[in-house]
Amino acid sequence: MVLRILHLVGSTDSSDFYCDLSLLFAGDCLTATANPALYEFHIAYVSPDRLWRFPPSLSKQDLSSTEPVSLAQAVQIINDLSIDLVVPQMFCIPGMTQYRALFDLLHIPYVGNAPEVMALAAHKHLAKAIVAAAGVNVPAGELLKQGDVPTMKPPVVVKPASSDNSLGTTLVKEFAEYDAALTTAFNYSEQVLVEDYIELGREVRCGIIERQGELVALPLEEYQVNAQNHPIRNFADKFKHTETGALINGKDNLNTWSVDPTDPITAVVQQVAKKCHQALGCRHYSLFDFRVDPQGQPWFLEAGLYCSFAKKSAIAMMAQAFGISVDELLSIAIAEALGTSPSSAIGKLA
Question: Which family does it belong to (predicted)?
Fold first, then answer.
């Protein structure tokens, strides 16, 4: 029997960024994993007014021409579709939390982490506290609200406490730079995190997937940073806008690359990443950023607990470097969500 999969797309945020991000990765996923012999894909698109649409595709024409419906109507449509599984593709905080919780209430399984885990990871200071309690190195820091005066001596990194993709993040080298950095960060979050700047050795990211009860650490992804003129990553390292305003993935082989599995840092970071996965209560998959100091010690920066199953999604790229295609990666995640082996995930519902 073919699995009926609902891709949950869109954003409740009034800015365009999270919606564009969702459309970018969901669109790539729909193309990369389409297999009518295995899956029947459906789309649920949530707009900032919290109305739902069920378009036949993610084209602008289909999105604009599809009649919006209320939450109550959307639940009825989802029940009528007899959805077997959901792939969450929303990156705003309500999308990562409230909308996942909705499917828990509807008893419809979904791939990825539970809403309470997503909420923890979305607030960087909470994620830091939890992994630190598990014995993971984290930069010293302080959490500020509007009007608070920072006490930490530069150099420090100032970042929104609940925003991703380096939005609003600034390296402060002198006290005089604090005001501008705080103003920028508060544009993205009601709270701001100030952290010690970890002297640069390297900056890497590690993905973890669960496969038949085992934690599998994927090859590390390393970022092009240097102490002279690019000491921290910024938004442009991750995403870019075209001349027409369209959002595109900014990664390329010049600013990111896969770390050789025999590199001594690989095993060290992978072990720490597994600790983070377990400490935060992750399931199915997880993704963590680390700063590696000149002595080779990894320091936890943040967690990004989502995977879009698009070819340029971070976990998918790491999995491909490990020999797992994006199709197989989705199959593994579905098997974990349904409690089957990857080879029998489809047959489970037959």
Answer: Belongs to the D-alanine--D-alanine ligase family.
